[in-house]
Amino acid sequence: MTLAPADAVLPALRALLPPAAFPEGDAFRAEPRGRLRGEGVLVAPGSTAEVAAVVRACAAARVALVPHSGGTGLVGGQLMPDGPGPVVLSLARLRAVRGLWPEENVAEVEAGLTLSEVHALAEGAGRMFPLGLASGGSARVGGLLATNAGGVQVLRWGNARALCLGVEAVLADGTVWQGLSRLRKDNAGYDLRDLLIGSEGTLGVITAASLRLVHPPDGVAVALLAVSSPAAALSLLGMAQERVGEGVSSFELIGAMGWDFLEETSLGACPLSPVPEWCALVELGLPAGLDPRAAMEGLFAAALDANLATDGVLAESEAQARHLWELRERIPEANRRIGSVSSHDISLPLSEIAAFLPEAGARIAALGPFRVNAFGHLGDGNLHYNVFPPEGGRRADWDHLRGAVKDTVHDLVAARGGSVAAEHGVGRLKVGDLERYGDPAKLAMMRAVKAALDPAGILNPGAVLRAP
Where are the strands (E) in 93-234, listed by range? Predict the structure, then answer.
């Protein structure tokens, strides 16, 4: 079905909404890596009722609608570069905290709150919302759930889906689904919450959520340990889990190229000298009565004895621990400043990672003198495998090989039973990858669900599934 441009519905929207719903500026047209530029008219409703009114008007006029949260997505799900200009639906003004129940470990918030604001809300109640991202100051609840965001503590607490008990959402015809729930157990029919979470705004617009909070660990220890290889890092992870179980909150892998990039962009330096080929950034969080520093010291000593670690630095204070994490979180910014030829958000079975990395490195080297920065959430098998021009080179000079680089990496991931869309989603940039590597039965089911919930195809057309 042919869609109309946003201008066809704009007069109706101006009659329905207050002036505050039409902010100025065009920052929403850009995405962090500069690969796409979106079109459309920005509309920012201030309530769920106003969101529903916008969706009903767009449905009546057959105008595409693209939900926009914090704009931090890396696969183009928040932009529509082709076709009639859509209404870009900003969630930024949905700001209410609807309820807070510390005794239940639940907060009910609207979709426009940032992750940092949710962290502050939970902390004020003596709780923690254990989703950690470098973009926490700008990523919003609606987008976090729409993409099923991951981050540095998935190993212990799971993705965004595992931290959400219920959602409120506006469906494609403007109906409001009151799916907010504070229940841990509810088997009354299909789990529509999990259907909408991760659907990237293609099945409905999430306007509020019931989030699961946890008691924060009584004590935390952080260490950066030098390891000889990814295989050694995986063995170290197993040793840590054997010693402290779920007390392992985070386990990140950082390659030497990541430290090189931090120095090259003046964003930081490795605390270890000489810079090791591989590092593991480990965080332990333990309840009262247990000493996380003693546990970390014991782990470090055991890792040295087993030849799994060769050096390390243990944070002596909260400030030092925060500094180690800041270094890790600056790596994506260093990547952006240098400019990748092709970036890959992949996941692999843990036992496949040690063999994948050298094989992928050799295949990429055969294509050209590229630099590879492989780092990420080793504890849950999610790596960011990014390929860059040689030192002093420009991304534009190597863009002609971008497709070959991407196919090389993704083919290897698929062959090892992995995923080419680990935590950032599919968006628009990976629609072809989903078609190439996805199971045909799964794709058919997804298309059937899309057709049933959005028969006119107005919700984020072209994201996740190719627009018909």
Answer: 97-101, 106-110, 164-170, 176-179, 205-212, 219-227
